[in-house]
Amino acid sequence: MPEYLTPEQIHQRFDDTALLIPCLIYSYLVIPNFLGAHDTEALLSRSKGLLDEFDVDNHPLTKFTTSDKDHVGDEYFLNSGDKVRYFLEEDAVDENGRLTREKQKAVNKIGHGMWPSYSLRDADCLHVLEPAFRKVTLENQRLRALVRDLNFHRDPVALQSMVITKQTQIGGEVPEHNDSYYTDPPTALGFWIALEKCTPENGALSFLPGSHLTTPIIKRFVRLPGGGTGFERLVSQEVEKTVSEEQKGKYILEACSPGDLVLIHGSVLHKSERNRSPKTRFAYTFHMIDSPPFAAYDSKNWLQPTGAMPFSRILDQPNPN
Predict the structure, then answer these.
(1) Which of left, alpha, beta for 121 (phi over 0: left; psi -120 to 50: alpha)?
(2) CA–CA distance from 19 to each of 145, 213, 223, 304, 311 (Å)?
(3) Are 176 and 268 in contact (CB under 8 A)?
(4) Alpha-carbon Rg of the chain, whole angstroms?
(5) Which letter does DSSP use for residue 45 in this model?
(6) Cross-strand bridge partners of residue 275
(7) What is the C-alpha separation between 23 and 35, in angstroms, rounded?
(8) Cα–Cα distance for residue pair 187/266, rounded to 1 Å
(9) What does each of the 321 residues of the chain score in pLDDT, given as a tens digit?
(10) In Å, what is the CA distance from 176 to each residue of 49, 171, 268, 271, 307?
C-alpha cells in the first residue's frame, strides 16, 4: 500500500514508461502542502538568517548565471558541494565589482551543502550544519515515504541543496533547461519546495509537459579538463535551434503556495522568468539520484562528492526491486 501518494497517483502510467516515474504523468508533479507551515517558515527564516550572516567583505563577488557565456567556473563554485556559499545576482554587482544593493537583496542563491553528512559532526566545518534543512531532507519520514512510493530509486542519495531567492526586480531569468545529472542509467529527480508564494509576476516555474520524451538533451554542464566549468554540446547547433523553435509557447506555468513540493523529472525542460515584482520568491531545492551499484555517477559532472561529504543517503534500507 502507498505510504504517502494516493493510489491514483501511483497507478498513473505513461505511454512509454522506460526510465520514467509512473506518477509523473506530465514529467513533473505538484504536491500541495508537502511541508507544514512550521517547517516552511523555519526554512524561510533560516534562509534570511544566512543572508544576514553573509560576509561580503571576504567574498569573491561570484555571480551566478545560467547563460552559456561567463558561467561561474572558479574554485569558489566548484568547491561548494560541502559548504554553504553565496552566489550573487548578475545585476547586483557593478562594473567595478561593487554591490549595487544591500547584501540581503543581492544574493541569487545559497548552496550547495545545506546539510552535512553525519561524518561532518566532528569536523572543523561545523558552519555547514543547518538543522532546519537537514530535518526536512534527511530526517523527514514523509519524504522517505514519498521516495518509497515512487520506487524510482533503489538506494537514493541527495545532492546539490540550494536556497534560490529570486530577488525583487533583479531576480534573473532562468532559460529552458533540464537538471539531469549524468548517471548510468539516468536517475535524476528534482525536489523543489516553495518557501513563499510563487506567481507569474515573481518568477514561478514553467514546464514543457512530456519534453523528457520528445526533446533531446542538447548540452550538459561539466568540469572542464583544464579547470573550471562549461557546457558540453551534445547535439549540433542546427538541432538545438530547431528544438528551441518547436517548443515556443507550449510551457505551462505552475503557481505554488508555501510548502508545496514540485517533483521534476531530470530530463523535462523547465524555466522561470525574471522577477519584476516587489516580492521575493524563495525556494529550497535539491536533487536525488541512485547510488552504486544501481547507477554510476559520471566523473564529468561539475559536482563531485568529497571525502568530507559523500552524497547523503535518504533511506535506511534500499527499495526492493
Answers:
(1) alpha
(2) 21, 10, 26, 23, 22
(3) no
(4) 19
(5) H
(6) 171
(7) 19
(8) 7
(9) 678 887 766 654 333 344 455 556 568 889 999 999 999 999 999 999 999 998 888 777 654 454 444 444 455 555 554 567 888 888 888 888 788 899 999 998 887 654 444 333 322 222 235 888 989 998 999 999 999 988 889 999 998 888 999 999 888 888 888 887 688 898 999 999 999 999 999 999 999 888 888 887 888 888 888 777 778 888 888 887 887 777 676 899 999 999 999 999 988 889 999 999 999 999 999 999 999 999 999 998 888 887 777 888 999 999 987
(10) 31, 16, 9, 5, 33
Contact 132, 248 (CB under 8 A): no
Contacts of 98-105 with CB under 8 Å at 24 or more apart are: 99/56, 99/61, 101/170, 103/51, 103/54, 103/56, 104/48, 104/51, 104/52, 104/54, 105/167, 105/168
Identify the residue whose cell numbers are 545585476: 91
Residue 292: CB atoms within 10 A of its CB come to 10
Q: Cα dist. 180→59, 117, 153, 258 in Å? A: 29, 23, 14, 25
Cell 550538459 locates to 220
Residue 270, all three cell numbers: 523547465
Q: How far is CA 251 from CA 42, 216, 265, in A?
A: 32, 17, 15
Beta-carbon contacts of 228 under 8 Å, excluding residues fewer than 6 positions away, are: 73, 74, 78
Q: Look-up: residue for cell 562549461?
A: 230
